[in-house]
Design goal:
Helix content is about 40%, strand content about 15%. The protein is α+β, with helices and mostly antiparallel strands. The protein has 2 domains: about 1-25 and about 135-203, no CATH class; about 35-130, no CATH class.
Length: about 200
């Protein structure tokens, strides 16, 4: 680990983790946000290069859960589009710029159609990694490594407040996706680093 003016950087293999990931509190408060992260923003959710194929493979299973506008977006754009920086993202609808893969229940709550289908056992792919890891955003470094940084978004202020109330830090809230994506050893090392960083703050 190293510490500069920009805070502690935790290095685990070729992955760099910012101090905020282990220091900040976060726990989704869905009862308040109702899935607004799927419908706000300038573009769709970031996707890994291999994920559009996974979406395509499962599309027939989850597409009936999508809004007609979402299916129209996929018909027009395909299973992904490029944002203004040329990065792969989920397609968005023409009417509201919702993620094309959203699903609204009878109460108007916004859900991920892909994930809903996954939990029903009808889809092998859960949803893009960027969605599962939020509020962490992953950046690919020129060295070939990855940087995991905390993304702060006003629409998630209730989640930061809930995490603080319940004593849940970002890396703890994201234990499942961090472990599944980067491995158990990575998460164990991250927990050990978090204990060290937090203990230093108590001195």
């Amino acid at each position: 680990m190293s510490r500069e003016d920009f805070g502690t950087i935790i290095q685990i293999g070729d992955i760099l983790v910012s101090e905020d990931v282990v220091d900040e509190f976060f726990a989704c408060d869905y009862e308040k946000c109702r899935g607004i992260c799927c419908i706000e923003g300038d573009a769709g959710a970031p996707m890994e290069e291999w994920e559009p194929q996974e979406v395509e493979d499962c599309y027939d299973a989850f597409s009936p859960l999508m809004r007609p506008e979402g299916r129209e977006a996929v018909d027009a754009k395909g299973f992904f589009e490029l944002d203004i920086e040329g990065d792969i993202v989920t397609p968005v609808t023409a009417d509201s710029h919702d993620c094309a893969y959203t699903h609204y229940d009878a109460s108007g709550n916004c859900l991920c159609a892909i994930e809903k289908c996954f939990f029903e056992g009808r889809c092998a792919f859960r949803k893009p990694q960027s969605c599962r890891l939020y509020p962490i955003r992953v950046t690919r470094l020129s060295s070939g490594g990855l940087a995991l940084n905390l993304h702060r978004w006003d629409i998630c202020k209730d989640a930061f407040e809930k995490g603080r109330r319940e004593g849940v830090r970002v890396y703890e809230f994201l234990r499942e996706p961090l472990t599944e994506i980067y491995g158990e050893e990575f998460y164990r090392d991250l927990c050990a680093a978090a204990q060290y960083v937090l203990s230093r703050k108590e001195i």
